[in-house]
Amino acid sequence: MVHYERYICIIDPLHYNNLWMHRSFPLALLIVWMPPLLFASLPAFGWNNWTGPHWNSCCERMPKLSPLSNCSTNGTTCCSYRRVFSNAFIYLEVYGLVLPAILIIAGMTGRVLCITRGQLKDICRLHRAGERGSQASNREQRMNLRYTRCVVAVSLTFLACWVPYLIYMHVCIAFLIIDTKWSSTTHIVLSCTGIGSMAVVPLVLGLANRQYTEPAYKLLQKLRDRWRRTQEPEEDFI
């Protein structure tokens, strides 16, 4: 939703303040949160493998195992996530929801960078026409340098935040397809790296948006001014 808002701000800035998400913010939150919550609740509503063959007897024989652990009876894996999440559910989540959303975000970001590059070229062309010179001025160089920094920041953010998560998802899918066990250490490292890198995305978007940072900055400035006012009487008394 944040990427879409930025995309509309660049593509159609005249209608940015009239966006439906600004007019009805609770509806925007509902649209963002309800579909994932409903999809995540599907196993609880019956889309699961809870009644698999020999699973109940397997778990009854090994009561000390965690519900997320694996035990085997006659070659059948039980007491694991497979009882809750079916393969179709996992495939739909990865290739039907998460991966298309990431590709859409990458497409919108690339489109915004292309439009910004075109606008920058137009500004430089008008600037040169006004100064009647063919050499790039210091202002043009600063604008080009700022655009280059923006491209580098966006690329590094995508590589550092989304690529590890994509690798983690596909490694999990690969192990799911070949149906082999893998070490818990490898799983812990991949899951922490992948999910942790994805969790950084909202923080990066928030720090890069002045609409989010300015209120926090004003609040910190008020607290600092109040603290200074409380310290002034003590200094005068001393």
By helix and strand content, what is the structural category? mainly alpha
Number of helices: 8
Q: Would you list the SSEs in sequence order as H and E?
A: HHHHEEHHHH
Low-confidence stretches: 59-77
Query: Main beta sheet, described?
Result: 2 strands, antiparallel
Question: pLDDT average, as an integer?
Answer: 75
Strand order of the largest sheet: 1-2
Estimate the global geometry from the Cα principal axes: extended
Tally of DSSP β-strands: 2
Indicate the multimeric state.
Answer: single chain
N-to-C CA distance: 54 Å
Strand content: under 5%
Share of helical residues: over 70%
Cα Rg: 26 Å
Keywords: Cell membrane, G-protein coupled receptor, Membrane, Receptor, Transducer, Transmembrane, Transmembrane helix
Subcellular location: Cell membrane
Membrane topology: Multi-pass membrane protein
InterPro entries: GPCR_Rhodpsn, GPCR_Rhodpsn_7TM, TAAR
Describe the SSE topology.
Elements: H1 2-11, H2 20-23, H3 25-40, H4 55-61, E1 71-73, E2 76-78, H5 87-131, H6 138-178, H7 184-207, H8 210-237
Antiparallel strand pairs: 1-2
Helix pairs in contact: 1-5, 5-6, 6-7
Q: Can you describe this structure?
A:
It is a single chain. This protein is an all-alpha fold and 238 residues long. It has a domain at 1-42. Helix content is 74%, strand content 3%. The protein has helices at residues 2-11, 20-23, 25-40, 55-61, 87-131, 138-178, 184-207, 210-237; strands spanning 71-73, 76-78. It has a two-stranded antiparallel ribbon. A hairpin with a 2-residue loop joins strand 1 (71-73) and strand 2. The longest helix has 45 residues, at 87-131. It is extended. The model is unreliable at 59-77 (pLDDT under 50). One of its GO terms (molecular function) is G protein-coupled receptor activity. Keywords: Cell membrane, G-protein coupled receptor, Membrane, Receptor, Transducer, Transmembrane, Transmembrane helix. Its main location: membrane. This is G protein-coupled bile acid receptor 1.
